[in-house]
Design a protein that fits this description.
Layout: H1 6-16, E1 23-25, H2 32-45, E2 47-52, H3 57-71, E3 74-79, E4 82-86, H4 101-115
Parallel strand pairs: 1-2
Antiparallel strand pairs: 2-4, 3-4
Length: 117
C-alpha cells in the first residue's frame, strides 16, 4: 500500500470531487476481473472513484484495503459507497501530486502582485 501525506490526500480529494466512478463492485464482490479493471483504470487516470453496491461499511473498508494492498495504490477517501484511490502513473515520480487549486491560486496571485507597479 502506498503512503501519502495529509496534504497530498487533501489535494487528491479536491481533484477527485468532480470525477465520476469508473468501476463498480456489485454483489459478486471483488473478483480478479474487477481488480484488473481497477488496475487498468489507474494506469489511464491515476486517480479514480469506485462505486460499491454493498450496504455494509466494514465490507467496503475491506475492499478498499484489499485493492490498495494488491495494486500498490493509496487510499484517498471512503465516503458513503464511493472509494477514491490513487496510484502514480508508470512514468510519474513516486510521491508527486499536482498542486491543489488553492495553492495554484496563491502562487498566481503572488506572481501577479510582483509584476504590478
Amino acid at each position: 500500500m502506498l503512503d501519502i501525506t495529509a496534504e497530498q490526500r487533501r489535494a487528491l480529494r479536491s481533484r477527485a470531487h468532480a470525477l465520476n466512478p469508473v468501476v463498480a463492485i456489485s454483489q459478486n464482490g471483488l473478483s480478479e476481473a474487477v481488480l484488473q479493471e481497477i488496475s487498468t483504470s489507474l494506469v489511464s487516470h491515476e486517480l479514480i472513484k469506485i462505486r460499491v453496491f454493498n450496504n455494509d461499511r466494514e465490507v467496503r473498508e475491506q475492499y478498499l484495503a484489499t485493492i490498495c494492498e494488491k495494486l500498490g495504490a493509496a487510499p484517498v477517501q471512503h465516503i458513503g459507497k464511493l472509494l477514491v484511490i490513487w496510484r502514480p502513473g508508470p512514468d510519474a515520480k513516486p510521491a508527486t501530486v499536482r498542486r491543489g487549486r488553492t495553492e495554484a491560486r496563491r502562487s498566481k496571485r503572488s506572481f501577479q502582485g510582483a509584476t504590478r507597479n
